[in-house]
Amino acid sequence: MIVRRPLAFFLLLVLVPGSLPAQTAGQPSVFGYADFSKQAKIEARFLAVPEAKLAGEELKTLTAVPHMAATPEDRKTADYVAQKFRAAGLDTEIVPYNVLMNQPKVVHVEAYNAAGHLLMTGPAREEVPGDPFEDNPRVVMPFNGSSGSGDVTGEVVYANYGRLEDFDQLAAQHVDLHGKIVIVRYGANFRGVKVYIAEQRGAIGVIIYSDPQDDGYYKGDAYPLGPWRPDTGVQRGSVQYLFKYPGDPETPGVASTPDLPDSSRVSPDGNQPHIISIPLSYRDASPILQALKGPGVPQGWQGALPFRYHLGPGGVKVHLVSQQDYQRRTIWDVIGKVKGTELPDEWVVAGNHRDAWVYGAVDPNSGTATMLEAVHGIGDLLHQGWRPKRTMIFASWDAEEEGLIGSTEWVEQHAKALENAVIYINVDVGVAGPNFSAAAVPSLKQFIREVTRSVPSPLGSTVYDVWRNARAEGNEHRPSNSPPDGDARVGDLGSGSDFTPFLQHVGVPSTDIGSGGAYGVYHSVFDNYAWFTMNADPHFVYLQEMARVFGLEALRMADTDVLPYDYVTYARDISSYLDTAKRKAADAKLGAIDFGPAEAAANRFASAAQRVRGMQLAPTGDEAKLNLALRETETALISPAGLPNRPWYRHTIYAPGEYTGYAAVVIPGVTEAIEAKDAGRTSQQLTVLTQALDRAAQTLGSVQ
Ligand SMILES: [Zn+2]
Fold it and tell me: Which of 11, 25, 148, 605 could be joined to 40 by an S-S link, Cβ 3.0–4.6 Å?
């Protein structure tokens, strides 16, 4: 999938300084600016600052030791980031929250064959020849965040990826899951969804393992020879039901500030599994799968281990022990601000999580180094006397891995003020390789493309050119639900990172960027500095590239005259989602469902967007009323009642799928009602959507 081009790194060193002014000042106009010439000079000064070498040093410091959320080492990384923010001139504070999280005391798996002979015990230690980081005693044992505690023994059933259709296929083959331990492979959906469905179907425990077909030797050489997962590598991760609500499980909708009384907390039952789940390497999972009897698997279910897989049950029994230490623990967000000179209440928020399951070189600290070098650039401008028009806020989130906790609590605390936030800019997995990708609400697709036109790529030309010319496949870390239009593909925002509370709870227009590549060590001890410099970005030039894109997004939005939201594209995308839903409803034979009112509302929204675009293209410099309407249009798409059965999710156009977790479900109220074959709910959710689109059209139309 990935071709490494080492020569390009050296070319970059020569090309970049000279190419910067031409990239930026050469643009005749930029959407949102009355006169871009002054801003072009500021941007050129910014773009010259982020340094590859410094980004590499920052990454090395951040990933020196394991720094899981709420540990002393995590606190040290908070202090380090705070010190960098302060050095750049940001008004900085470390913000604590008190949140319920588990850490593992005992995680144990043993398997016996039908004759009672021991086949394996685990999880085994993660080890490969020569890795310099694997021996640290602070490496946490493999476990799942939000797992239940328990001690269970049972027969085993293999459920492929643990998708809804996989479980349905088992049911169709009359494989009963009651009292069984389900073994599923990672991939295709969010791990919490696998456990969610297994629990609904009566399973008493879940093993989630990494099949070599999905991120191991089947893809290419395993670490340390290559970037893919070695036999002992385990993917840790949260199994929280974040598609219900993310954040502190005891405080949906409320911030877990240290002074929050117990009476304001609820039972965590609503977003956590009750059964236990344990992650395994394929070395540990292999003897279980090999001993499993029962019918052979359907062809698509066969992984890359060297024997035929069977569904079970029979042939093997597994004993699982999970003792999880649940406590309210202190986590630390780092928040750095620069007050805007003209529009201090309009916030530009840019963030990245800092906590890692282990070292987190790619996930998330390549993103942290990205943010720190962006802040370095903004700091240089501040030291030269520049000030942004709007307030800029940089945020280093904690406890993202456990369930987007640091960002969710902060958003819940500042929900009111965030109604004026003009953008949330996210980076999580900043750099795993050379392939730039982005996801955004449709109103910001053109904005992110325009920003990448101003940033040079280490491969020559601009980030935009390389991105647009890349094969669409393997270049989208978040898939798009819109038809291709020949331009660089911008994905849709589902979940699995910190943009979720901003967009889907309070309606802040959001973007997410990353630079992907062959990355088989996700959430394992091997996602460390040694792996990173060997595989992802040996000369840190992609960290530099991402720092420029991330910082330029913030800078351009902070100073823009007119908010550069493209509602023409938003309306077009919504219409295409309605077309798809209408087809699905017909296929599902739901009977007479009237899409007419929703389609008419989408058309009114499109007309309003078209008229407003004319005003956006001719800014005069006094756009307060226009900007207010532009911003409130996204808020208009928030439904106060939220989605059926998950009121925390309030956006009518985007949500994580209940059965996908990461991937976005578009017009989720309607789409999920159709998938549930519920005609009544489909009609009711179409009404909710119609009202939201009418609110959006009216808000946008109010300035004409
Ligand atoms: Zn992450």
Answer: 25
